[in-house]
Every structure is written in C-alpha cells, then in structure tokens.
Amino acid sequence: MKSIGFIGLGVMGEPMAANLLRKGYPVTVFNRSAGKDEQLLKQGADAAASPAAAARTADIVITMVSNDSAVEEIYYGAGGIIEALRPGTTVIDSSTVSPDLSKRIAASVNEKFSDFIDAPVTGSKPAAIDGSLLFMAGGDEHVVDAHRELLLTMGRDVVYVGANGSGATAKLAHNTIVGINAAGLIEGMAIAAKSGLDANAFLRIVQSGGAASKQADLKGRKIIDRDYGVQFSLGLMLKDLRLSSVLTDGIGVSTPMLEAAKSLFQIGQAAGLGESDVAALAQVYESWIGKQIGEPPAPPVAAKSDETTGADRRKKTRLPLSVPIMMSIYQWQEAGGFSGQSVEGTLLDLSEDGIQVGSPFPLEQDMFVVIHFQKESELPPMTAKVIRIERKNGQFQYGCLLAGLPLFQRLQLKQYIEGHVE
Q1: How much is the pLDDT for 142?
Q2: Region label for 378, one of left (φ > 0), alpha (ψ between -120 and 50) or beta (otherwise)
Q3: How close are the terminal C-alpha atoms of the chain, in Å?
Q4: Which ranges of 99-233 does DSSP label H, i.e. alpha helix?
Q5: How many helices (H) and strands (E) does the chain have?
Q6: 3-hydroxyisobutyrate dehydrogenase-like NAD-binding domain: which residues (predicted)?
Q7: Contact in structure between 136 and 97 (CB atoms under 8 Å)
Q8: Would you say 45 and 37 are in contact if contact means Cβ atoms under 8 Å apart?
Q9: CA dist., res. 409 & res. 405, Å (int)
Q10: For this structure, is 171 an active site residue?
C-alpha cells in the first residue's frame, strides 16, 4: 500500500487523514501549528518535522491548507515540498487556491518528474469526517484515474474537470454559489424574523419549497440556534469569494451577485466573525433588524413603550438633523472645461437611497456634488446627484441620490447619522 505524506491538519485535513489511517494507509503528517497531530498520532500516524520531511519518503503527498500564502509556504518555503520531491511522486492539493497558483505548482512538480492533481473538495467538516467529500480534479486524466481509489477513501465521488487549474476554477465557481446561497438564506430568514414569523416554521417552508438548498439544510438550524461552531468559517468563505472575484475580473465575467455577497462577508469579517462559521453572518443581520433570528415571536401588545433609542425615535418621528458638511460643486464651462468651488452645508436627513442637505448656495436639478463629512466621521467623500429642490427657512434643501455607494459605506453613514441623534 502506498505511503502518504499529509500536510495540513485543520478542520478538513485532520478528518481526511484519519480516514486514510482507518483504511490502512501508512500516513506521515505535518501541520504548521503544533499540537494538531495528537489524535492522528494516537491512531498510528507518524510525525514529520517539515513539509519536506513528510514528502521525502512518501509515494503520494496530499496538502490541505487554508489559502494561497500558506500553500506557497509549504511548497516553496524553506523545508518545502518541492525541494524534497522524488521522481514518480504524486502530489494532490485539496486546498482552495487560485487557478494560477495551481498551474504554477503543477509546473514545478512536473519539473521534478512527478505528477500534480489539483483536487479541492465540496463538503464541509461533517463530510470530511464521514468520508463523503466530492473531489473536483484537475490534471492528467490518467493520473486522476490511477488515484481515484485513494481519493474515494476520503470521499464519495471524484469528478474530472480538465487540465491542471481546472479543479481550482471549479471550486471557486462552486463556492461563489455557496456564498450567494448562504447570504440569501440569512437575508430571507432576517426578513421573516423582523416580520414576526417563527424561524422554525419559516425554515420548514424554505426546506420544502423552491428555496430549498444544501445551505438551508446545513446552516438553517445553526442560524436559529446561534450555533457558530465551525463547519466552514466565514473568513475562508470571504477568501474564496475574493479569489473568485479576481478570477472573474481576469476572464471578463460580470458578477454583481458575487460582489454583493463578498461585501456582506466583508462586513462580517470586520465585525470580528471571521473565525466563526458562515452561519455567523446572521449576527450582522440581527444587528440590523434589532433582534435574534431564532427569537420566539413577541406576543401582540396593546401599546408600545415610549422608551426608544435615539435612532429608533428618529425613525418613528423623522427628527431633523443638523450635521455640518462641505460640498464640492463642479460646473462645466462653454470651453469644455469646468470650474469648482466648495461651500458649507448641513446634512438634514437620511433615507434608504439618499440624503437631504441644506445650503444657501443655489444648485440645479441633476447636478452632481461631492459631500465631505467632518474628519471625525472617518467617512470618505460621497458623490450625490440633486434630484429634488425645495426652499425653506431662507435656504435651499436638496434631495440627493447617493451614486454608486458600496453597502459597507452606506452602513458607516447610517451609524454616523445615528450617533448624532440624542
């Protein structure tokens, strides 16, 4: 039986290596963080001091690490795999990385008269534990077929997708769908929760209807129970969406849904949820709707308390604001150039898609202005289009549509405004 060098013993790698041991393969393991190999050593694995040591005596090297930089380190760093490869070794990388990196590693492995398969997986921690992963394999088809039995020790299927780099591409396309589905599930559950529906009943509807999905099955219960134990982390999902964004830019595919999902996971990462499960993105929505998604529906009440926060009070009564701003005004000249000036103004109100500002300076319909907030706000300049003009109390009031404002900046603006409501 062929000997295995297994490198990367995280959430996925440790149970994958354990399945190889259970099937009788001799396995030597290495992990960059100490202590991750203890259970495997008890099951009969040998320990290596470096990736090179794990690869040097192995017939097959399998790697499963977190990102491009980690893969670069274990293959090309000091004590890396490439320097230790013997001719005839097969290297299988099951990490989710960029297709370009997979192709580069394949070229390096081939130079050592060895074979390379990029074989990322679909299926999170539970599938890794029970050996039901699906491998999407890129490389020489004959090499993939020769290692199919080995891969099925850790999974239920192996799908050949093409030359080296194709497995990595398939994984990024797949995880684009996963990220969008997860965000859509959480958004729908937030809508239901905010509307007073019972989350358990709504999840049954989702799983029984056209919205049914693997994400609903895997994450729905975790969202309701606020169970953020990692099956697949939010930070890794964001990493995959970023890689997919780079890939799609390179091949010229417009991906508005990918970009929207990426923005949501960036907000989750910024909120400190990167090490939690993808389901933790629900906490971002819970902060927006002001309640937990799995919270039992509140019984109807006859009257509402007057004790509300400043932000809630403003939403109910539309209290006016008076936040100082500066506006850059640009006007085209007949010669084809433009002139500009800065004028003082006041931020008066915030709506879902725009703001209302006041200024004694006369502007015209459809004119674009650049709004500059006070330095302490840490807000970037925002471009707005004048869509409505009124005159009140001796000054002009302009309804402005915010142009091309990313979601995270809209949230920053909302938080800044709410901080000025007493």
Answers
A1: 98
A2: left
A3: 72
A4: 99-111, 125-130, 141-146, 148-152, 166-194, 199-208, 214-225
A5: 17, 15
A6: 165-285
A7: no
A8: yes
A9: 6
A10: yes
Element (H, E) at 135: strand 133-138
Question: Tens of pLDDT along the chain (422 residues)?
Answer: 899 999 999 999 999 999 999 999 999 999 998 888 999 999 999 999 999 999 999 999 999 998 999 999 999 999 999 999 999 999 999 999 999 999 999 999 999 999 999 999 998 889 999 999 999 999 999 999 999 999 999 999 999 999 999 999 999 999 999 999 999 999 999 999 999 999 999 999 999 999 999 999 999 999 999 999 999 999 999 999 999 999 999 999 999 999 999 999 999 999 999 999 999 999 999 999 999 999 998 776 655 555 555 445 444 444 457 788 998 887 655 555 556 788 889 888 877 667 889 998 888 888 888 889 888 888 888 888 888 899 887 789 999 887 666 777 777 787 787 776 55
Structure tokens at 420: 């000025």
Alpha-carbon span 276 to 282, nearest angstrom: 11
d(CA 316, CA 322): 18
Does residue 204 sit in helix, strand or coil? helix
Kindly report the CA angle at 283 between 281 and 287, in degrees rounded to 5?
130
Burial of 171 (0-12, 13-18, 19+ CB in 10 A): buried
Q: Which of 103, 112, 171, 262 is catalytic?
A: 171
Query: What whole-number distance in Å separates Cα of residue 320 and Cα of residue 363?
Result: 21
Range 306-309, long-range pairs (CB < 8 A, 24+ positions): none
DSSP 3-state of 224:
helix
Tokens representing residue 138 in the block: 């890129």
Torsion angle of the four alpha carbons 133, 138, 144, 150, in this order, in degrees rounded to the nearest 10 = -30
With vertex at residue 12, the alpha carbon angle to CA 137 and CA 22, rounded to the nearest 5 degrees, is 90
What are the residues whose beta carbons fall under 8 Å from the beta carbon of 61, sequence distance 6 or more?
A: 4, 5, 6, 7, 54, 55, 81, 85, 89, 90, 91, 92
Which domains does the chain possess? 4-162 (3.40.50.720), 170-289 (1.10.1040.10), 317-418 (2.40.10.220)
The enclosing H or E element of 315 equals: helix 310-317
